[in-house]
Every structure is written in structure tokens, then in C-alpha cells.
Write a structure and sequence with these properties.
four-stranded antiparallel beta sheet; seven-stranded mixed beta sheet; 485 residues; alpha/beta
């Protein structure tokens, strides 16, 4: 049943929402390895009606960039509002509390200002949870990764056998890379997480304090496992393979890890090139996993509506980074390419003037923390290294950042990449001495949107390389949006 306060808030404008006595709730939805290949991003062959619902009621950011294209560094950066060189989290094992012990996380900040903060599924990376972020212990339902017994047996090898490795899971030591079993949604983790989120919303609706509910779905991350009905949404013959299954011309050999070690750890994946029929099966599985996760998003949104909470709830959905589906002969993230750094970001705010709009402004995941805080009327902590994109919700075309910044490490090197309106500029430097430059990449998105040819060494681009190098040295602080008059 709707409360009087909730009904009243439904009539508030975006400008006055934060000032209302009742603070807006936050529904914070994370997805894993999700590239911006969705209906709301103009890819109508993808069946994502529920994510598209958020877009229709909110805003879709076409050029949103993570700060490092792998799970833990990206999620740590987003949740702390700081960049990887500040968190010093560049891998999957370092916890930010060991490097920045006193940082106030996004959930912690909302909790300190009267919010009930609960999380489930995958928000931080797997075991790297942060107890002080939440009002109650974080919970991830434990369910098998596969439905078929033979696949569970294959997957068990990495637990009971000799497949364990400190560096990388050995080839073919996991279960298969995809599965299409005729089973209910709740067979797998995301279905269980959606059920838990629905039950939690019912509990939260009875509370007299605003809530911040973080719901983390693991799909479409490998393995591409989804109930058969989601596979049936797609015609395999209509699935198009990557148009550029080759390494970028003149790029340094380490720019992209095209051995795709993550994929090759799954049973049945060859050690050499991926044949076309297998590539099509993999893309089919990825699409099915998107649609499966989308259905779970819909289950949560339906309950939000049923409880009458939507009118006073900010809904935000993000994918932690992109993923290559055969582009540049690779199947994974782990690089500075557009495929990996560009990821979905959608937000719906009650009363927003431009519902259904898109924005081409350059925004970063490090901006999510200050944006949600400002929309909720909370003060901005001094440590934040992003910029609230709240002004874009009213004026999506307004001048904004001059660049978005990401990075990715290689052995003894750090690759810093900068996405401007037209170019992607990547500079590879010694990890301990940034004055030592090992290589430079330059891609012109006006003529080469797929980043197929590195033109940094073309003498005709010398002035542009010099200009972008100078811009990179000035850093993200100088790329902030112009101050409005």
C-alpha cells in the first residue's frame, strides 16, 4: 500500500526531489561483463525489454567508461569514487581496505546519512566484500553454475583435481563455456538473487527509512549458462560474427591479450583460433545470458512497481565493463579498447524532464558515486575523483568532459587510455617511471570506430599525438566539465 508521503513524492520535480522530507530510495543494479549491446543502445536484435524499461523512464549514456576493464578494479573504483591509481587495486586479489583503509564507500556514505543499505549477488568482486558498506551482512545465494549433471562433473575438476593455478586457470579445466537446459530461472544464481531482491523490497517497504538496495547479477559473465527459453529467443543463423577478428594494425603486441585465457579455461575451447560455428554458439550463449539476466531485472522492477515504490526510487543499472566477442581475435575484457572500456549506464530518476533521452556526453563510472549522492541530497565527500552527471539529466547535450580515462596493467607497464570526443589515445609507460614511454596508440573514431589501425606512428598525426600527450599529462582534473554560467 502506498503511504501518503510516497504518493506526494510522485509529484515532485527532479529539482525538488532531494529536498523532500522523504529521501529517494536507490535501486542499484549491477551486471557482469555486459557490453552496450542492448535494445536501448539501438541493437534491436537483443531481447532486453526490462533494461529497456529503465531507459524509457530514464536516460541512457552512450559513452560511459569504466576505469579499468576487469571486475575488481572497476567495481572498487565505482564503489569508492576513486580511480585505480588511488585505490591501488589493479588485480583481482587486492582489497582496497589494505591500500585505502579509511575510504568511505558509496554504500557506507548512504548508510551514514540514514539509509538502510543492503547488498546481494555480486557488487564487489566475489570474496572481496566490504562489511562496513552494508547495514546487514551481504548475501550471495549459493547455487550450481550448471544444471546438467555431466557439466557439473566437468566443472568440479578445478575444485578436486590439479587444475588449481596461482596465475591462471588451466585450459579446459572448467565446465563448458555454455549450456542451454530446460530449467526454471531460479536454478541459477541470478534467479535466486532476483527472488531475494523481491523479498527484500517487501521488507524495505515496511521500514520508515529510505533504502539503498544493491542487486548484483553475474550474467552475462562466462559460462554462458541460461535456461533454454532464452536461447530460443535467438535464431543462430542470424547472429553476426565480429566484423574485425584480427589484431589492430601497428598496435603493440601486448595491447590486447588475444590468447583469451579466461575463455580457454572452459571445456571444449580449442587452444588456437575459434572456428566460426563455435564463435556463433558463444555469441548465442552470451545473448541468451543477457536475456536471462534481463528477465531477473524485470522481476525486481515489477515488484518495485507493485509495492508503489517506483515513484520515489532512483533506478540505476550499470555493467562493470565491456567484453570482446571475437573482436581483435579476442574473447574477454582485459584491455584498453573501446569494446572493453565502454559499458552500459542507465539511470531513471523520479520527475526527470528528459525521460527516454540519450546522452553522448563522456561520463565515467567514477562519476556514479557523486551523482547518486547529489540526487539524494547528500553532501559530497572530499575524496571523490568523479563529477556528478546530474546536470546532464536535464540537459543531455550540454558541454561536458573533454575526456574519459581508463587504464590497464601489463608486466612492468601501465597502459593509460584517454577517450576524447574523436580519438582514443593510449600511452604505455613504465609502471614505476611514467616518463619512460614504451608505446603509443592512437585511433580515430571518425574514420576507424572499431579501432582497427593504430595511427600514432603516422608522421601526419605527430601534432595530434603531441597534443593528446600533453592533455593526458594534465590528467582527469583538467578534463572536468566547464562550469555553468
Amino acid at each position: 500500500m502506498k503511504s501518503t508521503a510516497t504518493t506526494f513524492v510522485a509529484f515532485l520535480s527532479l529539482a525538488s526531489l532531494a529536498a523532500a522530507d522523504q529521501k529517494p530510495n536507490i535501486l542499484f543494479i549491477a551486471m557482469d561483463d555486459l557490453r552496450p549491446e542492448l535494445g536501448c543502445y539501438g541493437r534491436d536484435y537483443i531481447k532486453s525489454p526490462n533494461i529497456d524499461r529503465i531507459a524509457k523512464a530514464g536516460m541512457t549514456f552512450k559513452r560511459a567508461y569504466c576505469q579499468q576493464a576487469v571486475c575488481s578494479p572497476s567495481r572498487t573504483s565505482l564503489m569508492t569514487g576513486t580511480r585505480p591509481d588511488t585505490t591501488r587495486v589493479w588485480d583481482l586479489v587486492t582489497h582496497f581496505r589494505t591500500t585505502t583503509p579509511d575510504v568511505v564507500t558509496l554504500g557506507q556514505h548512504f548508510k551514514a546519512h540514514g539509509y538502510f543499505v543492503q547488498g546481494m549477488g555480486k557488487i564487489y568482486h566475489n570474496s572481496l566484500d566490504d562489511e562496513v558498506t552494508w547495514s546487514v551482512p551481504f548475501h550471495t545465494p549459493k547455487v550450481p553454475r550448471y544444471a546438467l549433471p555431466e557439466n557439473l562433473t566437468l566443472d568440479q575438476r578445478q575444485v578436486t583435481g590439479k587444475a588449481k593455478s596461482k596465475s591462471r586457470t588451466p585450459a579446459n579445466s572448467r565446465g563448458p563455456a555454455f549450456e542451454a537446459a530446460d530449467v526454471p530461472d531460479a536454478t541459477f544464481q541470478d534467479g535466486k538473487v532476483a527472488e531475494l531482491a523481491v523479498a527484500t523490497l517487501r521488507d524495505m517497504s515496511a521500514k520508515k527509512q529510505p533504502f539503498f538496495l544493491a542487486v548484483g547479477f553475474v550474467k552475462p559473465h562466462l559460462p554462458f549458462v541460461a535456461p533454454k527459453k532464452y536461447w530460443d529467443l535467438y535464431d543462430p543463423a542470424a547472429i553476426q560474427l565480429a566484423p574485425n577478428p584480427f589484431y589492430p594494425k601497428d598496435a603493440p603486441e601486448y595491447a590486447i591479450l588475444n590468447h583469451s585465457g579466461e575463455l580457454r579455461s572452459y571445456h571444449g575451447i580449442p587452444s588456437d583460433s575459434i572456428p566460426a560455428d563455435l564463435a556463433r554458439q558463444l555469441k548465442h550463449g552470451y545473448y541468451a545470458a543477457i536475456s536471462y539476466a534481463d528477465a531477473q531485472v524485470g522481476m525486481v522492477l515489477d515488484e518495485l512497481d507493485r509495492l508503489g515504490l517506483r515513484e520515489n526510487t532512483i533506478v540505476i543499472l550499470w555493467g562493470d565493463h565491456g567484453w570482446k566477442l571475437g573482436e581483435h581475435s579476442a574473447w574477454a575484457k582485459h584491455s584498453n579498447t573501446e569494446n572493453d572500456t565502454n559499458a552500459p549506464l542507465l539511470i531513471s530518476v523520479p520527475g526527470m524532464k528528459r525521460a527516454g533521452a540519450t546522452s553522448s556526453a563522456l561520463v565515467e563510472f567514477v562519476d556514479i558515486y557523486p551523482s547518486l549522492a547529489e540526487l539524494a541530497g547528500l553532501p559530497l565527500p572530499a575524496h571523490l575523483e568523479g563529477t556528478s552527471f546530474k546536470p546532464l539529466l536535464d540537459e543531455p547535450e550540454r558541454p561536458w568532459k573533454s575526456a574519459a580515462f581508463s587504464q590497464y596493467p601489463r608486466e612492468k607497464l601501465m597502459g593509460y587510455t584517454m577517450r576524447t570526443d574523436r580519438h582514443r589515445f593510449t600511452i604505455w609507460v613504465d609502471a614505476k617511471d611514467h616518463a619512460k614511454v614504451d608505446a603509443i596508440e592512437l585511433y580515430d573514431h571518425q574514420t576507424d570506430p572499431q579501432e582497427n589501425t593504430n595511427v600514432a606512428n603516422d608522421p601526419a598525426n605527430a601534432a595530434m599525438v603531441e597534443q593528446l600527450t600533453a592533455q593526458w599529462k594534465k590528467g582527469w582534473q583538467v578534463a572536468k566539465p566547464p562550469v555553468a554560467n
